[in-house]
Specification:
By secondary structure, the chain is an alpha/beta fold. Helix content is about 30%, strand content about 35%. Strands 1, 2, 3, 4, 5, 6 and 7 form a seven-stranded mixed beta sheet that branches. Helix 2 runs parallel beside helix 5. The N and C termini lie far apart (about 85 Å).
C-alpha cells in the first residue's frame, strides 16, 4: 500500500512540475542590410492581401485556409508596427482571404475593386506545418514517461510575398522560413515564463513582416517611375 501511495505522490509531483518552453530558430533568407529610407520618393498606394494557411502533414490532404478566429492573435498590431518600414506610402488597404470567399461573390468583387485602386499589390501568404506522425508519437512517449523523457513538438513557418504593380505584373517575390520547437518535460515549468509559446509566435511574425518590408523599402520597389 505504501508503494502505491508513493507512486501516486511521485506521479502527481511530476505532473505538477511539468511545463513547456518554446524556442525559435534563426530565420532562413533574412535580409542582412540595414534600413535605408526613401523619404524623397513619390507617394504610392499599397494593397496588402493576406492568406493564412495551416497543414498537418500526414493528416491534411492539402493546406487549409485559417478563418478569422484561427489566425494568430494580434496580427493587426504586428502589421501596423511593420508598416513603419515604409516611408512613401500615402495610403494602404488590407484584405484577408478566407476559404468561405468561394461562396461569397461580394467578397471577391471587393478584392478586385481594391486591386484597381492601388499602385502596388503585395500578396502575402503565411504557412505553418507540422508532422502528424511526429506529434502523435511524441504525445504517446511523453504520456507514457510522465514527461520524464523530453519530447520536442515542432512547427515549420514560412512566408511568401509577391509584389505586383497596378498592371498585374509580378515585380519580385520574397520568402522567409523559420521554425518553433516546443519542449514538454518535467521541471520545464521553471523555464516557461521566459519562453512562452505565444510570445515566440509573435516574435516570428513580427520578424517576418519587418524583414520583408525593410528589403522592399531598401530596394525602392515602391518608388513610382
Amino acid at each position: 500500500m505504501k508503494k502505491i501511495t508513493l507512486l501516486i505522490v511521485l506521479a502527481l509531483f511530476v505532473l505538477m512540475t511539468t511545463g513547456c518552453a518554446t524556442f525559435k530558430s534563426d530565420m532562413i533568407g533574412k535580409y542582412a542590410k540595414p534600413s535605408e529610407k526613401n523619404y524623397r520618393a513619390d507617394q504610392a498606394s499599397l494593397l496588402l492581401i493576406f492568406s493564412h494557411y495551416r497543414q498537418t502533414k500526414g493528416w491534411d490532404a492539402i493546406p487549409k485556409l485559417d478563418n478569422e478566429r484561427q489566425r494568430i492573435r494580434g496580427f493587426d498590431d504586428f502589421l501596423v508596427d511593420a508598416l513603419n518600414e515604409f516611408s512613401n506610402i500615402k495610403k494602404y488597404s488590407t484584405f484577408t482571404e478566407y476559404a468561405s470567399d468561394v461562396n461569397k461573390p461580394e467578397r471577391r468583387a471587393q478584392k478586385d475593386s481594391l486591386i484597381k485602386k492601388h499602385d502596388y499589390i503585395l500578396k502575402i501568404k503565411f504557412m505553418r506545418e507540422k508532422s502528424f506522425a511526429k506529434h502523435i508519437l511524441g504525445t504517446i512517449l511523453s504520456s507514457i514517461s510522465l514527461t520524464l523523457i523530453p519530447v520536442p513538438y515542432s512547427w515549420s513557418y514560412a512566408i511568401e510575398a509577391d509584389l505586383y504593380n497596378s498592371k498585374g505584373t509580378l515585380l519580385k517575390s520574397y520568402t522567409r522560413k523559420a521554425s518553433l520547437i516546443k519542449w514538454v518535460q518535467t521541471l520545464m515549468i521553471f523555464v516557461y515564463p521566459f519562453h512562452p509559446e505565444q510570445r515566440k509566435k509573435e516574435e516570428l511574425y513580427v520578424e517576418f513582416l519587418h524583414d520583408i518590408f525593410r528589403q522592399i523599402e531598401n530596394e525602392k520597389m515602391l518608388k513610382k517611375n
